[in-house]
Each structure stands twice: as structure tokens, then as C-alpha cells.
Specification:
Elements lengths: L1 E5 L4 H12 L3 E6 L2 H11 L4 E4 L5 H12 L5 E4 L14 H25 L5 E5 L12 H22 L4 E6 L21 H13 L5 E3 L2 H12 L2 H8 L1
Parallel strand pairs: 1-2, 1-4, 2-3, 4-5, 5-6, 6-7
Bound molecules: NADP nicotinamide-adenine-dinucleotide phosphate (NAP).
């Protein structure tokens, strides 16, 4: 069993890589930073590989899609993602476009390369976010990119069912990783990367989905926000 995990050098992606390796997968870890990838490889031991690739660039994306098109992978975890924070109009356009390139363009290209070869029993996990359900002012492009990932995954789930390929939008809420900088989040809402991955592994073994929220607290909070008038939900999240 071979799995490819993007953004595997830190946070949720790293927890995926470690957990899948422990489960017997041969893991291919993709990220930009060579040092962190080599540290991960040393931790995983023999039988795993890494690819240094910037998924925002055509070159990095092509190297990764080529690997997937070569076949042999039964699991793709499309995890690498980024966010820019602040009022949209005050942020450089470049950071908004980079967010779209990594969170949407790369996810589509990698999913396409993977599904072209996927055998029955394979799975595609696209890491989305609860903000894809309930957009948060100050993270406009990020929230919209995750709404895209969730909708994309839902339709793929339906399209791929008859082939026996399982597709899932994994929607963590606030997760304690280096890129998570919010300080005003109640602790009962915050998960560790390992908790997110444990929830994903259980959802995969139960063929749950197409949309998986990773904790009861996140399910409750997201449902409550969706029951509110949209204006009220936006004010609360802001
Ligand atoms: N943390 C949260 O609260 C939270 C909540 C909901 C959803 N999520 C989603 O979960 C996923 C992982 O988030 P995280 O918090 O674990 O992130 P993280 O700790 O910041 O790690 C991001 C990973 O992606 C890699 N990466 C970043 N830019 C890349 C690029 N251009 N090309 C290739 N790899 C790249 C990073 O390595 P390099 O920098 O070396 O490339 C790193 O391995 C993301 O999709 C995020 O949107 C996170």
C-alpha cells in the first residue's frame, strides 16, 4: 500500500505521514522544505520516500502529478494548504492568488492525476476546513477556497462511488499547528493534529463522508452557526 501526503513535513500532514507509516503504508511525503522532510524520513525509517516540490509552481506540481500518474498509490492526502489573514482589500493580491493556487489549483491537478489510475479500494482525502461551511471575515479567500474543496470533494465522492474509490472532504476546525495563530479560540474547540488524523482514519475505515467534521465540538459549532441567519454567523465568526 502506497500513500502520497502533501504538506507532510509539518502539522496535520506530518501526523498523517507518521500514522499511515505505522499502519503499514509506504509513504511519499511532499513539501518544499528539504530539511523537515529528511527529518521525517529518518523518523519513519526504511520503505518511505519524499519529494521536494513547491505545489504553487508548475514545475513542482508537474513533478508530483507525474509521480501519481506513475500509479501504485492507493491513498492521496491532499493536505498542503495556506491562508492569508486580514481584510481582503488591504492584502497583496499575490497572497490571495497563492492561496488559490495551493488550496484549489494544486488539489484539482493532484486529484486528477490520482483518480486517473486509482484502483477500486483506493481513497482520496482532500483536507478542507469547517470555514468552508461557515466563512470567517478576515480569511475571505481561504474560507472560499475551502468551500471549493468541500464542494469539489462531494461531487467526486458521488462520481467515484461506482468505481469503488472513496473520496472525502476532511474538515478540521481549529487545530494546534504552527500556522494556526488565532488566540481567541475556546480550548474545547481546538484539536491536536493527531486527533484530526485519528478521526480521518476512522472515517476512512467506516467509508464515512463525503464530508467529515473531525470532532463532536466542531460538528455542534458548525451546525449551530449554519442554523443562524448568515449575517449573525458572520458577526460571531468575525
Ligand atoms: N491548523 C488548522 O487550524 C486547520 C484547520 C482547518 C483546516 N486546516 C487545513 O489543514 C491542512 C494542513 O494545515 P496545517 O495547519 O497542518 O498546516 P502547517 O502546519 O502550516 O503545514 C503546512 C504543510 O504544507 C507544506 N506546504 C506549504 N506550502 C506548500 C507549497 N507551496 N507546496 C508544497 N507544500 C507546501 C508545508 O511545508 P513547507 O513549508 O516545507 O512546504 C507543511 O508541510 C491545510 O490544508 C489547512 O488549510 C488547518
Amino acid at each position: 500500500m502506497r500513500a502520497l501526503v502533501t504538506g507532510a513535513s509539518a502539522g496535520i500532514g506530518r501526523a498523517f505521514a507518521v500514522s499511515l507509516a505505522a499502519e503499514g503504508y509506504s509513504v511519499t511525503a511532499v513539501a518544499r522544505g528539504v530539511e523537515a522532510l529528511e527529518t521525517l524520513m529518518a523518523e519513519l525509517g526504511e520503505g518511505h520516500g519524499h519529494l521536494v516540490a513547491d505545489l504553487v509552481t508548475d514545475e513542482g506540481l508537474r513533478a508530483t502529478t507525474d509521480l501519481l500518474r506513475g500509479g501504485g498509490f492507493s491513498l492521496l492526502v491532499n493536505n498542503a494548504g495556506t491562508a492569508s489573514h486580514g481584510d481582503f482589500a488591504e492584502q497583496p493580491l499575490e497572497s490571495a492568488l497563492t492561496t488559490l493556487d495551493l488550496n484549489c489549483r494544486a488539489v484539482v491537478a493532484l486529484a486528477h492525476a490520482f483518480l486517473g489510475n486509482a484502483a477500486p479500494g483506493s481513497a482520496l482525502v482532500n483536507v478542507s476546513s469547517t470555514l468552508g461551511h461557515t466563512p470567517k471575515p478576515g480569511t475571505s479567500v481561504y474560507s472560499a477556497s475551502k468551500a471549493f474543496v468541500t464542494a469539489f470533494s462531494e461531487t467526486l465522492w458521488h462520481e467515484q462511488r461506482s468505481r469503488g474509490v472513496h473520496v472525502m472532504a476532511l474538515c478540521p476546525g481549529v487545530t494546534a499547528t504552527a500556522s494556526q495563530t488565532a488566540t481567541d479560540v475556546p480550548t474545547w474547540l481546538v484539536q491536536s493534529p493527531q486527533q484530526v488524523v485519528d478521526s480521518a482514519r476512522k472515517a476512512l475505515s467506516d467509508s464515512a463522508g463525503p464530508v467529515v467534521l473531525t470532532s463532536p465540538a466542531n460538528r455542534m459549532f458548525t451546525t449551530a452557526l449554519r442554523l443562524l441567519p448568515r449575517r449573525a454567523a458572520l458577526s460571531i465568526l468575525a
